[in-house]
Structure formats: structure tokens, C-alpha cells
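About this split. The held-out portion is used to measure sequence recovery: a designer receives only the C-alpha cells and must propose an amino acid at every position. Recovery is the fraction of positions where the proposal matches the reference. Here is one held-out target exactly as it appears in the evaluation file.
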């Protein structure tokens, strides 16, 4: 346990930030899973909407420092790739 006043305050801040970041990270993972679920069904229109929401969350997480900027970019790229794959298969079918 910290003994200095500033160290005690820092500990309180760290605990608070840790809880906030953990809940945000959890919400982000849930959003990504929702998107992947829609992609698995092969529905293009709902997948585009889910991707838009997911990209928003990734950008916000990167801005707040929860994710690194390049990590967010990489994830957005991979998710967009998945959307483009189901779009391509939908076009082939029609």
C-alpha cells in the first residue's frame, strides 16, 4: 500500500481508470462479436450498419487511449475485409 499522499491519490485514479477502461473494452468486444455474427449470417445491409457502429467504437477507444491507434486501424481493416467478402459472395449469387 502506498504511504505518500500523492501515491494514494494515484492508486485511486488507477483503480477508477481501470474500471472505466475494462467496461469500455468489454463493450467493444461485444460490438465486434455482434458484427461477426451478422457477417456469419451473410446479410449485407445489417452488416454494413454493424460495421459502422464498430468502427465508431474502435475510433473512440483509440482516441481515449484504450487501444493503440494502429491496433484500432488494423482491426477496422480486417473487419472491413470480412464485409467486402460477404458483399462479393452476395453479388456472385445474384
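Reference sequence for scoring:
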Amino acid at each position: 500500500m502506498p504511504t505518500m499522499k500523492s501515491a494514494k491519490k494515484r492508486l485511486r485514479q488507477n483503480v477508477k481508470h481501470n474500471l472505466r477502461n475494462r467496461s469500455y473494452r468489454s463493450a467493444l468486444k461485444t460490438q465486434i462479436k455482434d458484427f461477426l455474427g451478422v457477417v456469419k449470417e451473410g446479410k449485407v445491409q445489417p452488416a454494413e450498419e454493424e460495421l459502422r457502429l464498430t468502427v465508431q467504437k474502435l475510433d473512440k477507444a483509440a482516441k481515449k487511449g484504450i487501444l493503440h491507434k494502429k491496433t484500432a486501424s488494423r482491426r477496422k481493416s480486417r473487419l472491413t475485409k470480412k464485409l467486402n467478402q460477404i458483399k462479393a459472395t452476395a453479388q456472385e449469387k445474384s
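Annotator remark: The helical segments are 5-41, 44-64, 69-93.
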